[in-house]
Specification:
single chain, alpha+beta, 2 helices
Length: 116
């Protein structure tokens, strides 16, 4: 009976799968600390927002100490519209004058010049 058993392999405890050809997601580390003084790190994907609070292994709530997920470190740029960028280059009076000039050209029919 002993001759029929498989040797050199622990079936059930070891996986036969490999990591070859697997593309892992990029990650970042976030540092948390609870009120009892426990420090720990958690991994998040680059696109995920880290929560400000996380439950520690002792049961207390841990606060986000540092990392890319903190509100203070994320400096969001204000949204700039096309109008905002145009107003950076020209004044409102200039824009009014250009609009009147273009409307006059359009109404007179000379806006599009044909090249023969």
């Amino acid at each position: 009976m002993a001759e029929r058993s498989l040797r050199g392999m622990k079936i059930g405890t070891n996986s036969l799968e490999s990591d070859i050809g697997v593309a892992f997601v990029e990650r970042r580390e976030e540092h948390y600390q609870c009120e009892n003084g426990h420090d720990f790190m958690l991994s998040f994907t680059l696109g995920a927002d880290a929560p400000q609070k996380w439950k520690c292994k002792c049961g207390a709530e841990a606060d986000l100490i540092s990392g890319e997920g903190t509100e203070s470190e994320k400096k969001k740029k204000p949204v700039r519209t096309h109008w905002d960028m145009l107003l950076e280059r020209r004044k409102a009076k200039e824009l009014d004058a250009l609009l009147k000039e273009r409307l006059d050209l359009l109404r007179s029919g000379n806006f599009y010049q044909r090249h023969y």
